[in-house]
Amino acid sequence: MAHRPFFSITIPTFNRPGDLKKAIKSFLIQDFSDFEIVVSDNSENNDSEKICSSFKDYRIKYSRNKTNIGFARNLYKVIKQASGKYIFLFGDDDLIFKSDCLNNISKILKKYAYGYLRLKVLYHKDLQYLFDFSSTEKIYLKKNSSSLTALKFLFSVSFSMISGNIFLNDPNYSIPEIEKAADPDFLMEAFWIKFIYQKAKKYGAFYDTDNIIIQKWIIHEKNLAGASRNTPGIYDVTDNKIYVEKSWDLIFTELNSWEKQLWIKEQIFLMIPLLPSFKYYSSNSNLLLFVKRMIELERSLLYQPLFYMYLAIALFMPKGLWNILRTVVQKYKIVRNPQFNSHLENLKDSLRAL
Q1: Is residue 235 part of a domain?
Q2: Is 190 helix (H, G, I), strand (E, B) or coil?
Q3: CA separation for the pair 220, 235 (Å, rounded)
Q4: What digits encode the pLDDT tens for the residues 209-246?
Q5: Is 158 found in the same domain as 108?
Q6: Full domain range(s) for residue 151
Q7: pLDDT digits (tens, 9 = 90+) for 164-214
Q8: pTM for the complete prediction?
Q9: What is the count of structural domains for the chain?
Q10: DSSP label at 98?
Q11: 234 within domain boundaries
């Protein structure tokens, strides 16, 4: 019987061979070796294939799609190809921060058998500075928690960001909506909630702030993940639905009617302070469609003063001012821990050496 690796590092990629090379390198310098790296490529050229072949490492398993199948289908494909005990979702332009990360989290998972583990995320700018935008401390989710408790845990640890989601593999993983989709511009935001929710609820989960991944600090283009410019942005209202409703539908079969109603209300209220961001990444016309849908889902918004305040800010604040505020926040969030900066230098040296 073939050996089953402990981790399957699943990397969907699209036209970023240089970043992909660094991402793979950050795993090859780990002091833990029981893993495979599964890469699924949406690119129209073989540049990423050359990168993967250049490592001459049997643990790297590369495949390229005949045509660009879009982000959602590509990520789904690479998850289905994984053979490891745990699936480790990873972006093609992200990096593992320290060389002992896989070893550390393997020990945690072997000891506590969590169904889901989420790593802390820091951001970097050209590998010169680190930024920390989360003050969340370590969180534990008990086995057999209630449905709402499990969902609140997932959303509190930003599961919707791809990299750093680690969960038990299951051959029965299936999302028919993705499997049946033929349109390369099909997008289902954070569909992996279907996989991690059940495992987290049944086996428990852990948000690990000691082991870290780092992501580029960039302002994403609207359709960066899509197959073309026709792909809806995650803040676009399509078919009178907002971006999270597809992922909600994936787990609503697990909730009773009261739990659904409470969940929708809580999530809609959490969106209120995000209205300026929705406008920034789309337009006033799309923002108004977004707000209309929010009100349809939760009528009590009409009686919330904060709702009107954030809506006014979103509608009338110039993008130039928004950019200035982002710059101020960025400077405030720079990590000034000497130990972290030392780890960053070690990472840069390791990436250059390999």
Answers
A1: no
A2: coil
A3: 12
A4: 999 999 987 755 454 545 555 666 667 888 888 888 88
A5: yes
A6: 7-218+335-353
A7: 999 999 988 899 888 888 777 777 778 999 999 999 999 999 999 999 999
A8: 0.92
A9: 2
A10: S
A11: no
